[in-house]
Structure formats: C-alpha cells, structure tokens
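Following up on my earlier thread - several people asked me to post the actual chain instead of describing it. Fair enough. Here it is, all 299 residues.
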Amino acid sequence: MNMRRLLLFSIAVTLFGSPARAASADGKLRIICFGAHPDDCELQAGGVAAMWAAKGHKVKLVSVTNGDIGHWREAGGPLALRRAEEVRQAAKILGVTSQVLDIHDGELLPTIENRRLITRLIREWNADIVMGPRPNDYHPDHRYTGILVQDAAYMVTVPFFCPDVPYLKHNPVFLYYPDRFQKPNPFQPDIAISIDPVIEKKLDALDTLESQFYEGGANGSAELIPSDPAKQQERKREVRAGFAKRNEDLGQRFRAKLTDFYGADKAGSVKYAEAFEVCEYGRSPSSQELKELFPFFGE
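Reply from S.P.:
Thanks for posting it. Predicted structure:
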C-alpha cells in the first residue's frame, strides 16, 4: 500500500470506523436475502429463514422493488403499500425482518447507484450469507436483482467503494435460489435443506401474500376470486396446496443433494425442501462450512 492509499485508509477508518467483523460477536449468523418483488424471498427461502430465526440467527428479507404494478386490478402507491404490509405480516410469521426498497416494479436497472445500495445493505447487515436470484430469468427485475447481488459479491470487501459504510473483511457466502432455466446454464444445487419442520409456517407466511397468490398478481383476474365464502376458502386451500407441492417437488428434484447432507436413510424421508447454489463470486465454502452455515442437519 503506497503512502497516499495508506493516508486515505487512515482517514476512512477515522471517519467511518474499522472494517466490519465477519460474524456477530454473539456467534449468531446474519443472513440477508434479496428478491426482486415483495414475495420472492418468502417463496424461495421462507423455510430456511424460519429455521434460522428459530435458532436465534438474524435474517432479513429485502424486496428490491416495491411491486407497484404487480396486480391486474390495482397499481401505484396503494398496491405498493398493500404489498409492503403483506411481507411485514409474512415476516412476523417467519420471525424475520423485512424491507421493501422504493424502486418501481418493472423498472429496476443494474446502475452504479443500485450497486451501491445493495452493497450498503449487505455491509450494514454484516452478512455471513447473502441470497438472491440467478441472473438468467424471464423477468427483468429478477435478472437485474441477480446481477446487482453478484456485483456486490466482491465490492462489499473493497474499502473505498461506498466508504461511508465499513467494508467487510471477509466475503460472505453468496447463494442463488433455484429455477428451471437451462440457458446459458442450469441451476446446480450445492446444498439442499429439509424444511419439513417449518412447512406449515412457510405456508402460513405465503398465505398473507394474497395480492400475488390468491388474487393472481399481474396476470390474475376477477375470475380467480369467488363471491361465495365457501368457494373462497376452497380457493385459498388450493393455493396453499400448490405451494406445498412446489416444495415437495424440490425435495424430489434434489433428492441426491439431500442424500449428500443427510445420508440416504434420512434424506429418503424428507418431503419438503429448499435448495441453493453457491455463487463463485463470493466465498467458496466447503461442505463442512455449509453445514455450519445451515445448522439443521442434526435435527
């Protein structure tokens, strides 16, 4: 480090404090999950979020856009407020923290300003684990959320990028959510987790996101909402069963990876699962470290 950089470093430490530590002093993990819209984190990682929270670890779910065009009947500020309240209710059920950023739905771009925003959020949370979507997806907001999180995977450790927030000395483990897109490369799980103990809690949380699931979101219609109360309850049961089936399908799809972590006997009895892929741009954890970051395998 030359004298000029050494001087700048000393000024930064004086103004903004020493570099953030890699883990909480109390030994609890800190996890931050990014989704493009107010429902994505809950859908992709609600199970592990609830399991971490039950052990006292700190989990934050961030919606990068406010979801203000994600409905067939309503839009703008009223919808953004409604969706923010929905994820607040989901967060209460899961035992986590939630935040919705004030970026218009459908308008997210991978700008320098947004790169700084995501970097600051990760640093402020002092994250051990960062989750987000892969950058190949049908929705531009999903793609650009993935790119922004990828871009932060190195920048969170760079002292003079966003020097107003202490940089992280140790790069977190960055993880992707699963999807079924094959090009340019398919999702490849590095870890799969049984969420059998918390499946009902996850489904309860998803139940609160009525604008997206019960009412169908941007591609829904009035036909989805029966006028008869009995049929309304039937519709809600169908939506809930659909999400249970989604996590059951993940358990079947990633049975081999479940076996790697649980052993054949226990993996064979897992019904519901979530799975994640390590992003190469963050820290590259060993299987043992993944087990420490997901401390659920002895249960």
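The first strand starts at residue 30 and ends at 35. That should answer part of your original question.
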